Amino acid sequence: MKLRSAGLLLLLLSGLRADDQEKEVRAMVGSDVQLSCIYTKEKSFDLNEVYVYWQITDTSSKPKTVTYYLPGNSSVGHHNNRYKDRAQMSLDSIKQGNFSLRLYNITPQDEQKYYCLVFRKLTEQILNVEVTLHVAANYSMPVVIAPTAAPQDEELTFTCTSTDGYPRPNVYWINKTDNSLMDETLQNSTVSLNARGLYDVVSVLRIRRTPHVNVGCCIENVLLHQNLTVSSQKGSEPTPGTTRGSNTETPGAEAGRSRTVVATIALLLTVVLAAAAGWWCRSRCPRRGYAGAQAARPELGLTDHV
Length: 306
Hints:
Strand content: 35-45%
Distance between the termini: 109 Å
Number of strands: 18
Structural class: alpha+beta
Radius of gyration: 36 Å
Strand order of the largest sheet: 13-14-10-9-17-18
């Protein structure tokens, strides 16, 4: 009997478990990935005899079709619209015993277990493979906003933000003076899913005002073994501003640059006025006779001794 529908096959396979092989794969959001399912004992398969079925399980543990191949079909079928045009098997590869699934444009929702089930004539199971797909995305470099508390305030508040990462991050505040972890009771972190299905994090640290405050915010992506750390501004007292990676911009720094520019302009004006006064004096004052080079020799000798 030829099976033309994936529905009956779904019922037949719902009680099976992938206990032959288990694999784990990692993919970045937006990339493509191949879930391997290969039969190595044979190198040739008849498409009229082989049944290939890739499935996942939903939240109620019921199997759902990702894609499949059934005898008599000229192409691979899809039942799940979420995977339409994103899940692909190659008929030429199936003929050679390669039943791998190619997933395109990976999203966070693709993170789950996939099951590859292969039968010959529905009576002989030749492959039963479980592939766990882990999805990851890099978090943005943390941005630390330094305190804006008035000098009389006894509490300092630091805010750290990072966006568009996956999976859910770990957030740490570090005392940079000795690289120790800050007490978790001093911090409050909020992690939320954005419209892309990625995580955004905002962490607030409140500490008592002390001299030489220097703290760091660390965003850890466990799956990528990645730690992104940004330090607050250094100094005897924190200056209000924003720290992005190694770049710092503060109102105090901007005012300092303004003062430097004004001082430079004043110096240039002084030089120009002095030069003009000298020229006017040379043109108006009576000229003295040339005294010769000997008058300068004592000064030159003194300079040489120094």
